[in-house]
Amino acid sequence: MKFASAPSQSKYDVVIIGGAMMGASTAWFLSAHPGFDGSVLVVERDPSYELCSTAHTNSCIRQQFTTAINVQVSQFGVDYIRNFRANLGGDPDVPDIKLHEFGYLYLAGSAEGEQNLRAAAQLQNENGAATEILTPEQLAERFPFYDLDGVRIGSLGTADEGYFDGGTMFDWWKRKARDAGVEFVQNEVVGIERSADRATGVKLADGSVIGCGVVVNAAGPRAAGVAGMAGLSLPIEPRKRYTYVVEAENPLDQDLPLTVDPSGVHMRTDGQYYMIGAAPDEDIAVAPDDFVEDLGLWMDKVWPAVATRIPQFEALRVVQSWVGHYAYNTLDQNALVGPHPELPNFLLVNGFSGHGFQQSPAMGRGLAEWIVSGRYETLDLSPFGFERIAQGKLLVEQAVI
Ligand SMILES: Cc1cc2nc3c(=O)[nH]c(=O)nc-3n(C[C@H](O)[C@H](O)[C@H](O)COP(=O)(O)OP(=O)(O)OC[C@H]3O[C@@H](n4cnc5c(N)ncnc54)[C@H](O)[C@@H]3O)c2cc1C
User: Fold this and answer.
1) Is the CB of 45 under 6 A from ligand 1?
2) Is the full-model pTM beyond 0.85?
3) Local structure of residue 96 (DSSP, 8 states)
């Protein structure tokens, strides 16, 4: 999709900073909301999307979270994916979105881990998720390829968990939003003008200032920097996450669920390959343009963990690897969504801590509702509000991988 370099107007009802997954979702849902007839500008610094989180995602969805709102968000996500074409107005050109349900399998290696998985499964079941707790014997029967030494239980999502083609969703949100009149420009927001309690405009890299009714911060791992332009502080930082696509000399004869090993390394089926993910040992804030890979991580940490859990994976060949950034909420690893209390027309859709792709339908819908009617009309996203930080009432998500 071609981006203009300059906006056609000097003022918009809504200016969205960042045109990747969250920006595109917000733009599309807004343009499709029956109560909205305003103008929308999306400002994206890099329409190649090479460096954003969206380009580095693993694009999976799960129901296994430890907070009820995250389970509810994912339930909507799965429903939205399954009915994608209808959700985009039934256009026959819009493809169905592939959902490969291999399930997530969390393994507990300690008494505390077991207790956490059991409590989480209960919460997930209460919220409609099909999570099953499996003993080592049941695990061995269903997945005979694991070495279960030290494993106390597994928690398996038996429905609505797996890979979905989020890239297609992203493309079509942009296209449909543009067709509905949303303007996308290639530019960088370098400043935010404000009065005491309102954002009044965004300053672009070319020096122009664009007036705004509402500003949406959809800047991913750069969200804290963008909020800082308005004098606001967010507990969000870019953190590196590694992905490896590997070929196995001895592939499994069944799907590998997205297995979250007690070591923190996770692995799953990926077509004819397998996809493996890990965090660095020193999990620290990095610059948003730091994509340098620690070449030792694979040999020192990742491959040993994988080959220990699945001895059949002794021989693996890395065919591709990359580093991406989580927009990591350092306080409770959950999203910050909705108006900032100090600047109520500055809306957040930030801090997804590695689970934002699957949450993007619910987030775009929720923000659109908020902009149109000042409240969430369907799923109440207020648990993600910034107020919880100010009040010290955190919404801790423990199932962060
Ligand atoms: C390795 C990895 C694996 C992941 N796996 C999953 C998964 O399996 N499931 C899942 O749900 N989530 C996953 N995620 C998380 C998910 O990819 C992100 O939550 C999601 O892509 C965030 O989208 P975003 O639009 O908020 O941020 P981004 O994709 O980072 O987009 C932000 C955009 O804002 C633009 N921008 C920033 N500042 C400015 C500015 N000042 N002016 C103009 N434009 C600006 C940037 O150029 C960028 O395009 C993963 C992430 C990583 C890194």
Assistant:
1) yes
2) yes
3) P
Tell me where in the chain the CATH 3.30.9.10 domain(s) lie.
101-162+237-326
The helix (run of H) or strand (run of E) holding residue 389 is helix 387-390
Average pLDDT of the residues in 340-361: 98
- The answer, yes or no, to whether any atom of ligand 1 lies below 6 A from the CB of 220, is yes
CB 138 less than 6 A from any atom of ligand 1 = no
For ligand 1, atom 27, which residue shows the shortest CA distance?
Answer: 220
Distance CA 345, CA 94 (A): 33
Amino acid 292: pLDDT = 96
| Percentage, residues of the chain above pLDDT 90 | 99
pLDDT digits (tens, 9 = 90+) for 3-43: 998 999 999 999 999 999 999 999 999 999 999 999 999 99
Residue 49 to residues 28, 56, 269, 324, Cα–Cα distance (Å): 18, 10, 26, 12
Cβ of 357 below 6 Å from ligand 1: yes
Range 101-162+237-326: architecture per CATH:
2-Layer Sandwich (3.30)
User: Which pLDDT value is given to residue 174?
Assistant: 98
Answer yes or no: is the C-beta of 218 below 6 A from any ligand 1 atom: yes
Query: How close is the Cα of 59 to the center of ligand 1, in Å?
Result: 11
Mutate which of 222, 259, 328 to test ligand 1's pocket (most atoms within 8 Å of Cβ)? 222
Our answer on whether the CB atom of 62 is closer than 6 Å to any ligand 1 atom is no
Average pLDDT over residues 148-169: 98
Tell me how far apart the alpha carbons of residues 170 and 43 are, in angstroms, rounded to a whole number.
16
CB 297 within 8 A of CB 278: yes
Ligand 1 pocket residue status of 52, Cβ below 6 Å: yes
When pLDDT is averaged across residues 83-107 and rounded to a whole number, the result is: 97
Q: Which fold, 11-59+166-235+332-390?
A: FAD/NAD(P)-binding domain (3.50.50)
pLDDT at 124: 98
Q: CATH 3.50.50.60 residue ranges in the chain?
A: 11-59+166-235+332-390
Q: Which residue has the higher pLDDT, 1 or 230?
A: 230
End-to-end CA distance of the chain: 32
Other Cβ atoms less than 10 A from the Cβ of 301: the count is: 19
Ligand 1 atom having least distance to the Cα of 163: 8
Q: How far is the CA of 39 from the centre of ligand 1 (A)?
A: 24
